[in-house]
Amino acid sequence: MDRLNYWQLTGLENIYLEDSYVLGIKTDTAIEFFLEAVLTENHPLYSSPLPGEQYCYRRITLKFSHPQTYNLTLNKMLPIVDPDGTWDYGNIDEFFMENEAYHLIGEWGELTVVSDPPMIEFDQDFSIANSDFLQKMISFEKIKENYPTLIDENVKSLSINFSVLAIR
Protein backbone atom coordinates (compact mmCIF):
# COMPACT_ATOMS: atom_id res chain seq x y z
CA MET A 1 0.00 0.00 0.00
CA ASP A 2 1.18 3.51 -0.75
CA ARG A 3 1.92 6.01 1.96
CA LEU A 4 -0.98 8.38 2.66
CA ASN A 5 -0.27 11.68 4.41
CA TYR A 6 -2.76 12.77 7.08
CA TRP A 7 -4.27 15.53 4.93
CA GLN A 8 -5.37 12.80 2.49
CA LEU A 9 -7.48 11.14 5.22
CA THR A 10 -11.17 11.94 5.60
CA GLY A 11 -11.78 14.67 8.18
CA LEU A 12 -8.16 15.84 8.29
CA GLU A 13 -8.05 17.63 4.93
CA ASN A 14 -8.34 21.12 6.39
CA ILE A 15 -6.33 20.75 9.60
CA TYR A 16 -2.64 21.67 9.75
CA LEU A 17 -1.02 19.50 12.42
CA GLU A 18 2.60 20.65 12.10
CA ASP A 19 1.71 23.95 13.82
CA SER A 20 -0.96 22.46 16.11
CA TYR A 21 -0.15 21.74 19.76
CA VAL A 22 -0.43 18.43 21.65
CA LEU A 23 -2.04 19.17 25.02
CA GLY A 24 -2.27 15.58 26.19
CA ILE A 25 -2.51 11.92 25.22
CA LYS A 26 -4.95 9.41 26.68
CA THR A 27 -5.21 5.67 26.14
CA ASP A 28 -8.17 3.62 27.26
CA THR A 29 -10.52 1.86 24.86
CA ALA A 30 -9.31 4.40 22.28
CA ILE A 31 -6.17 6.45 21.76
CA GLU A 32 -6.88 10.18 22.01
CA PHE A 33 -4.69 13.18 21.29
CA PHE A 34 -5.99 16.42 22.78
CA LEU A 35 -4.91 19.21 20.46
CA GLU A 36 -5.02 22.95 19.98
CA ALA A 37 -5.37 22.47 16.21
CA VAL A 38 -4.83 24.84 13.31
CA LEU A 39 -7.79 25.01 10.94
CA THR A 40 -7.08 26.06 7.36
CA GLU A 41 -9.19 28.63 5.54
CA ASN A 42 -11.12 25.84 3.77
CA HIS A 43 -12.36 24.31 7.03
CA PRO A 44 -16.08 25.04 7.71
CA LEU A 45 -15.29 26.20 11.28
CA TYR A 46 -12.46 28.51 10.21
CA SER A 47 -12.52 32.09 11.46
CA SER A 48 -9.94 34.85 11.34
CA PRO A 49 -7.08 34.36 13.81
CA LEU A 50 -7.42 36.09 17.16
CA PRO A 51 -5.28 39.20 17.72
CA GLY A 52 -1.65 38.19 18.16
CA GLU A 53 -2.17 34.71 16.67
CA GLN A 54 -1.01 33.48 13.29
CA TYR A 55 -3.70 30.82 12.81
CA CYS A 56 -7.29 29.89 13.60
CA TYR A 57 -7.02 27.45 16.52
CA ARG A 58 -9.71 25.08 17.78
CA ARG A 59 -9.50 22.45 20.52
CA ILE A 60 -10.05 19.01 19.06
CA THR A 61 -9.60 15.37 19.96
CA LEU A 62 -7.87 13.20 17.38
CA LYS A 63 -9.26 9.77 18.20
CA PHE A 64 -8.24 6.27 17.12
CA SER A 65 -11.20 4.09 18.09
CA HIS A 66 -10.88 0.34 18.53
CA PRO A 67 -7.09 -0.02 18.27
CA GLN A 68 -6.13 -3.60 17.49
CA THR A 69 -2.43 -3.03 18.26
CA TYR A 70 -0.30 -0.04 19.04
CA ASN A 71 3.16 0.98 20.13
CA LEU A 72 3.37 4.28 22.00
CA THR A 73 6.85 5.58 22.75
CA LEU A 74 6.79 8.66 24.95
CA ASN A 75 9.77 10.96 25.12
CA LYS A 76 10.31 12.63 28.45
CA MET A 77 7.07 14.59 28.37
CA LEU A 78 8.01 17.85 29.98
CA PRO A 79 5.60 20.57 28.95
CA ILE A 80 6.83 23.44 26.82
CA VAL A 81 5.73 26.59 28.64
CA ASP A 82 4.95 29.66 26.53
CA PRO A 83 5.57 33.23 27.76
CA ASP A 84 1.82 33.60 28.45
CA GLY A 85 1.88 30.60 30.83
CA THR A 86 0.13 28.11 28.53
CA TRP A 87 1.86 24.81 27.89
CA ASP A 88 1.91 21.90 25.47
CA TYR A 89 3.98 18.87 24.47
CA GLY A 90 4.98 20.08 21.00
CA ASN A 91 3.52 19.26 17.61
CA ILE A 92 2.65 16.28 15.47
CA ASP A 93 5.50 16.64 12.99
CA GLU A 94 4.62 13.57 10.91
CA PHE A 95 1.36 11.69 10.51
CA PHE A 96 0.84 9.15 7.75
CA MET A 97 -0.72 5.76 7.02
CA GLU A 98 1.36 2.95 5.58
CA ASN A 99 0.83 -0.84 5.52
CA GLU A 100 -2.51 -0.54 7.36
CA ALA A 101 -0.91 1.31 10.31
CA TYR A 102 -1.05 4.96 11.27
CA HIS A 103 2.25 6.58 12.28
CA LEU A 104 2.50 9.79 14.34
CA ILE A 105 5.81 11.40 15.33
CA GLY A 106 6.58 14.52 17.36
CA GLU A 107 8.53 15.96 20.29
CA TRP A 108 6.20 14.05 22.64
CA GLY A 109 7.22 10.69 21.10
CA GLU A 110 5.91 8.23 18.50
CA LEU A 111 2.74 6.22 17.95
CA THR A 112 2.18 3.36 15.54
CA VAL A 113 -1.39 2.09 15.63
CA VAL A 114 -3.58 -0.31 13.68
CA SER A 115 -7.15 0.84 14.22
CA ASP A 116 -10.29 2.17 12.65
CA PRO A 117 -9.67 5.38 10.70
CA PRO A 118 -8.98 8.39 12.94
CA MET A 119 -11.85 10.70 13.84
CA ILE A 120 -11.86 14.35 14.82
CA GLU A 121 -14.11 15.57 17.63
CA PHE A 122 -14.41 19.29 18.27
CA ASP A 123 -14.34 19.98 21.98
CA GLN A 124 -16.76 22.55 23.30
CA ASP A 125 -15.75 22.51 26.98
CA PHE A 126 -12.33 20.87 26.93
CA SER A 127 -10.13 22.13 29.75
CA ILE A 128 -6.57 21.05 30.42
CA ALA A 129 -7.25 21.69 34.12
CA ASN A 130 -9.93 18.97 34.20
CA SER A 131 -8.76 16.72 37.03
CA ASP A 132 -10.32 13.58 35.48
CA PHE A 133 -8.33 14.23 32.32
CA LEU A 134 -5.10 14.78 34.23
CA GLN A 135 -5.59 11.61 36.28
CA LYS A 136 -6.04 9.50 33.14
CA MET A 137 -3.49 11.26 30.96
CA ILE A 138 -0.49 9.12 30.14
CA SER A 139 2.71 11.04 30.66
CA PHE A 140 6.26 10.04 31.34
CA GLU A 141 6.21 11.70 34.78
CA LYS A 142 2.93 9.99 35.76
CA ILE A 143 4.25 6.55 34.80
CA LYS A 144 7.56 7.24 36.55
CA GLU A 145 5.67 8.27 39.69
CA ASN A 146 3.51 5.11 39.64
CA TYR A 147 6.34 2.69 38.82
CA PRO A 148 9.47 4.10 40.51
CA THR A 149 11.26 0.74 40.67
CA LEU A 150 11.01 0.31 36.89
CA ILE A 151 12.21 3.76 35.86
CA ASP A 152 15.21 5.60 37.24
CA GLU A 153 16.26 9.22 36.72
CA ASN A 154 18.49 8.31 33.74
CA VAL A 155 15.60 7.10 31.57
CA LYS A 156 14.88 9.60 28.77
CA SER A 157 12.06 7.83 26.92
CA LEU A 158 9.62 5.04 27.56
CA SER A 159 8.04 2.57 25.16
CA ILE A 160 4.63 1.09 25.86
CA ASN A 161 3.45 -1.85 23.75
CA PHE A 162 -0.18 -2.91 23.80
CA SER A 163 -2.23 -5.47 21.91
CA VAL A 164 -5.96 -5.59 22.41
CA LEU A 165 -8.74 -7.60 20.90
CA ALA A 166 -11.08 -5.58 18.79
CA ILE A 167 -14.49 -5.59 20.46
CA ARG A 168 -17.30 -4.84 18.07
Which key features would you list for this structure?
globular; four-stranded antiparallel β-sheet; 168 residues; 8% helix; mainly beta
Could you explain the architecture of this structure?
There is one protein chain. It is globular and about 40 Å long. It has two helices and twelve strands, in the order E-E-E-E-E-E-E-E-E-E-E-H-H-E. The chain has 168 residues and is mainly β. Strands 1-8-9-10-5-12 form a six-stranded antiparallel β-sheet, with no helix packed on it. 8% of the residues lie in helices and 45% in strands.
Quick recap:
The protein is mostly beta strands.
Strand order of the largest sheet: 1-8-9-10-5-12
Q: Round the Cα radius of gyration to an integer and report it.
A: 16 Å
Secondary structure tally, helices? 2
Percent range of helical residues: under 10%
How many beta strands in the DSSP annotation?
12
Measured between the Cα atoms of the first and last residue, the distance is 25 Å
Shape: globular
> Biggest sheet: strands, sense, closure?
6 strands, antiparallel
The overall pLDDT, averaged over residues, is 79
Class per helix and strand makeup: mainly beta
How much strand? over 45%
Which segments are poorly predicted (pLDDT under 50) over 5 or more consecutive residues?
125-138, 160-168
